[in-house]
Amino acid sequence: MSLVLAQASGALPDDNTGYVAAAYLVFFALVLAYFAIMAAKLQRLERELVELNELADKQAAPRGERVAEPVAERTA
Q1: Is 41:33 a contact under the CB 8 Å cutoff?
Q2: d(CA 49, CA 70)
Q3: In this predicted structure, what is the pLDDT of residue 59?
Q4: The pTM is what?
Q5: What CA–CA distance (Å, rounded) separates 33 from 27?
Q6: Alpha carbon 39 to its chain's center
Q7: Do the beta carbons of residue 9 and residue 2 sit within 8 Å?
């Protein structure tokens, strides 16, 4: 209702759509950067986990310990 009155009186607020769009773009860029960083960390952790599993298998094999069967790879 107040917007209708403001339009009728000619006292419209400043047009800030450019600032709003810029704020959304900055927010989107930050979220995208966050997801990229988290994906890189996840890949690094997965590589380290594979290396640790291989190292554990190598250390267990000479002692005659039973080596666990590898878990099937997930297909996403």
Answers
A1: no
A2: 12
A3: 87
A4: 0.56
A5: 10
A6: 6
A7: no
For the chain, give the longest Cα–Cα distance: 89
- Three-state SS for the chain is CHHHHHHHHCCCCCCCHHHHHHHHHHHHHHHHHHHHHHHHHHHHHHHHHHHHHHHHHHHHCCCCCCCCCCCCCCCC
Per-residue pLDDT of the chain (76 residues; tens, 9 = 90+): 555 555 555 655 678 999 999 999 999 999 999 999 999 999 999 999 999 999 998 888 777 666 566 666 666 5
Q: How far is CA 60 from CA 26, 41, 52, 68, in A?
A: 51, 28, 12, 10
What are the distances in angstroms from CA 32 to CA 7, 29, 74?
38, 5, 25
- State which amino acid sits at residue 27: F
